[in-house]
Each structure stands twice: as structure tokens, then as C-alpha cells.
Amino acid sequence: MVEPVARIRAYKPSEEDDKLVRFVLGKAHMGLLGEANSSAYFHPFTIAAWVAASCVFIQIMQWWPDYEQFGWLSYLKPLPAFASMAVPIMFLIDWSENNRPAFEKLTQETLRKADIFDLAAYYSRSPSSGLWILEHGQTFVGLIAVDASPDSTTDADLTQDVPLDLKKKGTSDVATIRHFYVEEQFRRTDIQDDLLQHALRRTFEGGEKVKKVRIAYCTLARYLDKTLRKHGFRTVKQWSIRGMTTVQFTESELERKAWQKIA
Fold first, then answer.
1. CA 127/CA 149 separation, integer angstroms
2. In what residue span(s) does the N-acetyltransferase domain sit (predicted)?
């Protein structure tokens, strides 16, 4: 039996790869919604509200334990109240004014970006650009996309009235990591380090013009935050979205000189 081999390959302009990339980018931000919701579930205010509502329900239903009459089994009586009160609270957090709508908006913005229109053409405009897919045998593991084209520092999307010339080739001083994602079950192996190292090497060695690489990401993607810091990226800007919890975003960059020291 042949053991599956891990490999990093370039995106192929095919229907299969096209569907794969779009699907992965569509679910990447929605996966972070679960992280944001989990933080909200264990917020002290949420726990206090849950306990208070459960106690009110128990009082109304008269489900307080009665050890003298029912013994230790009576301590199980309040459990249905705590369980039933948890469901609406979790629902409200998931569908709060900012949590789900904020991440849905991020997903929509990602799928409207100019590179999504024609992935092959967009990432072939510079020798320092590229879209790479990491696989383990036939199993998808992750992807990373680096844009070093003349439009690398613009964030226009297809809904804006901004013309984009995909025939315009060249290399910018600043390259942007537009997409970086690894499936959850593989993150503990730090396989994202290999994917990032591969992309940085191809970007900086693709030409001397690229002076630095930048990326904007949500810090809830802790595996990204960890690998970026490990590889010398430094924070240059931070902002946040307020919902049930505050979701922080970071823009980081890595200069060529810093990369050469650790490469």
C-alpha cells in the first residue's frame, strides 16, 4: 500500500481547482464565526445571564432539589432548565446584530475580490505572484495566494466601478497575501509553516523588486497569527469589529531583510 505524500502544487486553471478554491474561501471566514461565538458563550456576562434565567425558570417550575423526599437524584431536577435556557442564548449570540452579519459580510467581500473573477490570469501577472494548494495524497489541506502584481495594494472588488486590466503585468514593491487557509484537523501539525515558507520563498525569489509582504487577517485564526509571528511578521495596524465580543483584525508585514535572516 502506497502511503499518501504531502505536496504543495500551483493552482491549475481547471474547473476542479476553481470550485475547490472558491468553496474554501467561502467557508474560511464562516469558520471564524464559530470561534467568535465560542468566545461569547464563555463571556462572564453570558454565563451570568444564563444562570439567572435558569434560576428563574427553576423557580417557576418548582424544580429545586428536594433531598429529603427524593434523595440525591433530586439534584438532577434543575438540569433541564439549564439546558433549555442555554439554547435561546446560543441562538441569540449566533444571530446577534454583529456576529453572523459581520462574518457573512467578510465572506461576501472575499468572493467579490478582483482575483476571484479569473484566478489563473490574476496570479500569472507577476513571477512573484502565485496561488498554491497543499495536499496530502488526494486530501485538500490548505492554500495560500500571494499577489505581487501592480494591483497588489488595492482592495477593489467586482461591485465597484474600478476597471481591472488582467493583461497589465509587472511586479509591485509590496506583495499581499490575499488568502491563507489550512483545514482545522491539520493545524496542530504546524503544516501552515511549510505552506507559508514555500509562498515567501517563491515571492521573494521571483524577483528583487518585492521589498515586503503584507497580510490582513482576523486574530481568531490563531494558527495564522502563530505562524506569521514565527516567521518574522510584525504588526503595523489593528482594528476591530464589535459584536457580542470584540473581534480584532491585524495587518502585519515582513520585509525582505527580515526574511533573509530566517530563510
1. 9
2. 90-257
